[in-house]
Amino acid sequence: MLMSIYLSALDTEEERCLFQTIYEQNTGMMYHAAIEILHNSYEAENAVHAAFLSIAERFDVYKRKPRNQLDAICVSIAKNKALDTLRRQKHLTESALEEVLLVHQDTSHDPAMLMERNDESEQIRRIMDQLPEILRIVLELKYYCQYSNSEIARILGVSKKVVEMRLYRAKIKLRELMKNESKNDGT
Predict the structure, then answer these.
(1) Do 169 and 177 touch, CB atoms closer than 8 A?
(2) Single pTM value for the model
(3) What is the C-alpha to C-alpha distance for residues 20 and 85, in angstroms, rounded to an integer?
(4) DSSP conformational letter for 140
(5) Is 37 strand, coil or helix?
(6) How far apart are CA 44 and CA 91, in angstroms?
(7) DSSP letter, residue 63
């Protein structure tokens, strides 16, 4: 039933076949990303459904993307739909939502530490938005979706060494942008 809804948004039979392939190959990864955020299977399924509706609506843009990038984009859209669900439901405060975004491992409950961490989270989110897409996607898959380097390589269709290099470059660029932002804050 859902597939007929998605396919009705597409113009040609070729687009429908391509969309079905993308759906079959990415549903699992998208669901995994959504369930990691929402911790509720019903809501995760809704987030994946909303993601595929968005993809179908803008399929003319997405169908031109290389397959390896499209897989990462599908996961990213599902993740964003899941975060939208959290925002709408207001189950989490903004600071807790930031923690979900950055998957903090620190379990400290000291209010001063939490405030400092939230400020850092906001800064990191702003800086992440400034990264080139190729580096941002690798960081999100690694630290947000918690994929291994091998899994990221498979998703992006590159070697594990390429993933390691992109992660290395992304971290350097992230540090550089953070230093520049802290200099700008000091002036």
Answers:
(1) no
(2) 0.50
(3) 25
(4) I
(5) helix
(6) 15
(7) T
